[in-house]
Amino acid sequence: MNLLYFAWVRQKIGKSEEKIDLPEGVETVQALAQLLKSRGGGYGDAFADLGRLRAAVNQEHVPFDSAVSQDDEVAFFPPVTGG
Q1: Can you give the pTM of this predicted structure?
Q2: Per-position DSSP letters for 13-81, written without gaps between them
Q3: DSSP element (H, E) containing 10
């Protein structure tokens, strides 16, 4: 799985992307976010409040209860605001 991080998420984690092997039992965006949060450090900070994050799977905005699989690209980013 390819993970992408944008804006302050990238800053907290310290990288813009990484590849991981999706563990068995991690089947949704929310479960993936909880897995990343459990890494602690910058990941713990970035994923502490999922209400402050949005996600996209394969470049399509999705809710956190959406399914994920090993071949997906998942991006995490803050909500986009206009002005």
Answers
A1: 0.94
A2: HT-SEEE-PPPTT--BHHHHHHHHHTT-HHHHHHTS-GGG-EEEETTEEE-TT-B--TT-EEEEEPPP-
A3: helix 7-13
